[in-house]
Amino acid sequence: MERTFLMIKPDGVQRGLIGEIVGRFERKGFTLIASKLMTVSKEKAEAHYAEHHGRPYYDDLMSFITSGPVFAMVWQGDQVIALSRQMMGKTNTLEAAPGTIRGEFAVHTNRNIIHGSDSPENAVREINIFFEPEELL
Ligand code: ATP
Ligand code: MG
């Protein structure tokens, strides 16, 4: 069974979308195996977004993701990595289909409500950044 790391970003938490978003993954049939409201430290933010270091949007991404509480989650289910990315919608909000989370709730690419792991390797890496093994059911 596959696992992924999903995170409601500060804009999603601030706008009161935790329940809406958790509900979508529950109704899809996935299982929540860990979750917490937390502030992302500079160290965790840098580790999480290491591959974006040097990009023009990197500094904004760092300050945004550390700007307020996020809701970090681990979800489990068949093909949860690819299916949750589909439910989130495309990164560029102009391409995020109506009905997806970003399509419904996001206007700007740099304030796009939710993060989801994009590969099995990154899922393991990101879960380990945000959760201790004993926090997972
Ligand atoms: P995430 O990793 O947050 O789930 P993603 O995998 O859809 O998003 P990535 O390419 O990994 O997209 O980019 C990580 C984040 O960096 C995006 O969610 C977005 O907030 C920001 N970002 C990426 N590209 C741009 C861009 N061109 N302009 C502004 N912000 C961007
Ligand atoms: Mg990504």
UniProtKB/TrEMBL annotation:
<keyword id="KW-0479">Metal-binding</keyword>
<protein>
    <recommendedName>
        <fullName>Nucleoside diphosphate kinase</fullName>
        <ecNumber>2.7.4.6</ecNumber>
    </recommendedName>
</protein>
<keyword id="KW-0597">Phosphoprotein</keyword>
<dbReference type="InterPro" id="IPR001564">
    <property type="entry name" value="Nucleoside_diP_kinase"/>
</dbReference>
<feature type="active site" description="Pros-phosphohistidine intermediate">
    <location>
        <position position="115"/>
    </location>
</feature>
<feature type="binding site">
    <location>
        <position position="57"/>
    </location>
    <ligand>
        <name>ATP</name>
    </ligand>
</feature>
<dbReference type="GO" id="GO:0004550">
    <property type="term" value="F:nucleoside diphosphate kinase activity"/>
</dbReference>
<dbReference type="InterPro" id="IPR034907">
    <property type="entry name" value="NDK-like_dom"/>
</dbReference>
<keyword id="KW-0963">Cytoplasm</keyword>
<keyword id="KW-0418">Kinase</keyword>
<dbReference type="GO" id="GO:0005737">
    <property type="term" value="C:cytoplasm"/>
</dbReference>
<feature type="binding site">
    <location>
        <position position="9"/>
    </location>
    <ligand>
        <name>ATP</name>
    </ligand>
</feature>
<feature type="binding site">
    <location>
        <position position="85"/>
    </location>
    <ligand>
        <name>ATP</name>
    </ligand>
</feature>
<keyword id="KW-0546">Nucleotide metabolism</keyword>
<dbReference type="Pfam" id="PF00334">
    <property type="entry name" value="NDK"/>
</dbReference>
<feature type="domain" description="Nucleoside diphosphate kinase-like">
    <location>
        <begin position="1"/>
        <end position="137"/>
    </location>
</feature>
<feature type="binding site">
    <location>
        <position position="102"/>
    </location>
    <ligand>
        <name>ATP</name>
    </ligand>
</feature>
<dbReference type="GO" id="GO:0006241">
    <property type="term" value="P:CTP biosynthetic process"/>
</dbReference>
<feature type="binding site">
    <location>
        <position position="112"/>
    </location>
    <ligand>
        <name>ATP</name>
    </ligand>
</feature>
<comment type="subunit">
    <text>Homotetramer.</text>
</comment>
<feature type="binding site">
    <location>
        <position position="91"/>
    </location>
    <ligand>
        <name>ATP</name>
    </ligand>
</feature>
<comment type="similarity">
    <text>Belongs to the NDK family.</text>
</comment>
<comment type="function">
    <text>Major role in the synthesis of nucleoside triphosphates other than ATP. The ATP gamma phosphate is transferred to the NDP beta phosphate via a ping-pong mechanism, using a phosphorylated active-site intermediate.</text>
</comment>
<keyword id="KW-0067">ATP-binding</keyword>
<dbReference type="GO" id="GO:0006228">
    <property type="term" value="P:UTP biosynthetic process"/>
</dbReference>
<dbReference type="InterPro" id="IPR036850">
    <property type="entry name" value="NDK-like_dom_sf"/>
</dbReference>
<dbReference type="GO" id="GO:0046872">
    <property type="term" value="F:metal ion binding"/>
</dbReference>
<dbReference type="GO" id="GO:0006183">
    <property type="term" value="P:GTP biosynthetic process"/>
</dbReference>
<dbReference type="GO" id="GO:0005524">
    <property type="term" value="F:ATP binding"/>
</dbReference>
<keyword id="KW-0460">Magnesium</keyword>
<keyword id="KW-0547">Nucleotide-binding</keyword>
<dbReference type="InterPro" id="IPR023005">
    <property type="entry name" value="Nucleoside_diP_kinase_AS"/>
</dbReference>
<keyword id="KW-0808">Transferase</keyword>
<comment type="function">
    <text>(Microbial infection) Catalyzes the phosphorylation of dZDP to dZTP, when the bacterium is infected by a phage that produces the substrate for the synthesis of dZTP (2- amino-2'-deoxyadenosine 5'-triphosphate), which is then used by the phage as a DNA polymerase substrate.</text>
</comment>
